[in-house]
Amino acid sequence: MPLTKLQFRPGINRDVTSYSNEGGWVDCDKVRFRQGFPEVIGGWEKYSPETYIGTVRGLHNWVALDGSNLLGLGTESKYYIEQGQQFYDITPIRKTSTNSITFAATNGSSTITVTDSNHLAVQGDFVTISGAVSLGGLITAAVLNQEYQIDSVPTANTYTIIAKDTAGATVTANASDSGNGGSGVDGVYQINSGLNTGVGGTGWGAGTWGRGTWGSAATATVATQLRIWSHDNFGEDLLLNPRDAGIFYWDKSDGLTARAVNISSLGGASNVPTICKQVMVSDVDRHVIAFGADTINTGEQDPLLIRFSSQESATDWTPRSTNSAGDLRIGSGSEFVRAVETKREIIVFTDSSMHSLQFIGAPFTFGIQPLATNITIMGPNAPVAVNDAIFWMGRQNFYLYDGQTKQLPCTVKERVFFDFDYDQADKVYASVISEFSEIIWFYTSNTNSLANGGTGENDRYVIYNYQEGVWYYGDLGRSAFLDRGIRTFPIAAADNYLYNHETGYTDDGSVMTSRLESSSIDIGDGDYFTSIRRVIPDFTFNGSTAQEPTVNLTLQSNNFPGGNYLQTELSQVDRTAISTTLPFEQFTNKADVRLRGRAFTLKIDCATLGVRWRLGSPRVDLRQDGRR
């Protein structure tokens, strides 16, 4: 038999058996498909050596009038503006205590008890202390007068901090630390920190809405929902909102060290929302829109209420005949989840329905129409817009809206949803990699769940290539991701760093391992034995930085389809456990092998630094064989 060209269907199919998927691919990591052929994805490197505090759940990039390229990023504890690889803390202030703080230290302990009546702080909050004097020993004024993260909150009038010096090293009190810090100690408290992980029994239908009467306010000591930020630029300034909290305004002209302030404190503020789930600036008509906001003059949050300011104003929210401020209510669903703006409309998701919000002019300003019911959405960051289309992850399905709402045919549903940590559904983060026509979702696998001893953070991704209509996936932990546009590379957040993506072919300078595996291939329907004697590779290594780029190609045979090629223990499967691994370099012409079986699979893996590989159509010397 002459050499047989191996040509595979693009994309991964995990929803059928390996034999049923003959001629396709069944598993991969760090691999994408382009023009029907597989290749390794681009690598990543740290954008900046600087770190931030917390886990980023939102990124927003814009350019100011002076040309400054600004990036907003929000964590469960802080909100930062990044410029020039530096992070500037603009977290809003909620309270300032003047001449009211005292301290108590214990000999041999680094824990300092702080007394401040009705401080309303929660564990993890940040407070900046000033005006203190030495406690008499090692707890000096320099130790006390700095920013601290609150360690615990024993009572409504006290909390504890861990003493540190200006370099961040822990300081232990001695017997001389018997003072109280003086009578002129001030404390500036940043807004309460949010949760960094999902809490069982909370989320939509719980939290504020599950405690006491409908609309009853939460106390400062209770946090039930993951801290997720929404943000949008109002001109060169920034509006930001921690979900289920107030709306804050950062004025670029005040400088990078200025903190955001509640919009209710700005001049001319009138009936601004005190709480909402998302803030957005409508690009076409320049209204500020608050979703899931409180009703005017009551302070009671309505999970389906949409309020909007007067045109060109971030502060005027009082409806009058002389302005365009107003409100409307979503007609179905039980709670607002997310709003996404496209070129022609704003798509509004509730927990079970989808609506179109459009500017219609006076006298109603906005109109809302239902688009679909009985849909699902995994979390607030699960949808992403591409031009006039929106893709999102639901529960057990993926969806597309492009004028019509439809389920996306998906060949990796079982791989994603059978190993999904639904307790961390709000951590799902969708983005687009426009250079390769890809929609990417990062999510937490059940394997990495807290219940199974994992971190409870995103550790996997799944990609839909909307140009080629194929799916693939891999292992990579990212809490937020933003496509390139204003910046040269896509940017992502993980492990307290920002990373540039699609740059080089390394894992921040280390080896980035990639792999790809085919389904079983046989002669006929497996009623003949196959002999493979030679392999002619078809790889390209263009773009590699390695001096000798190399990939491994493994051929593995078996006798019966009962063998799951994804199992790690070959001895558990009834097969002839024969495999050959061949290292292919740039100038390898062929490889001679001896392999027999009813069927075989092809595996590719690369663990070499700086290798960019792409597979074409390899050929094998495939012959019908007998059995001795």
How do you describe this structure in short?
This protein is mainly β.
Notes on the structure:
The chain is built from two helices and 50 strands. It is an all-beta fold. Among the domains are: 152 residues, Sandwich (Jelly Rolls); 98 residues, Elongation Factor Tu (Ef-tu), domain 3; 103 residues, no CATH class. Strands 2, 41, 42, 45, 46 and 48 form a six-stranded antiparallel β-sheet that branches. It has a four-stranded antiparallel β-sheet with strand order 1-50-43-47, with no helix packed on it. Strands 5-40-39-38 form a four-stranded antiparallel β-sheet, with no helix packed on it. The longest helix is centred in the middle third of the chain and has 5 residues.
Q: What's the assembly state of these chains?
A: single chain
User: Would you report the number of β strands?
Assistant: 50
CATH topology of one domain: Jelly Rolls
Provide the β-strand percentage band: 35-45%
Helix and strand content put the structural class at mainly beta
Q: Tell me the overall shape.
A: globular
CATH class call of one domain? Mainly Beta
* Approximate helicity band: under 10%
Largest sheet: 6 strands, antiparallel
Q: Radius of gyration, rounded?
A: 29 Å
How many individual helices? 2
The CATH architecture of one domain can be named as Sandwich
Mean pLDDT rating? 88
The end-to-end span amounts to 20 Å
Low-confidence stretches: 201-223, 563-578
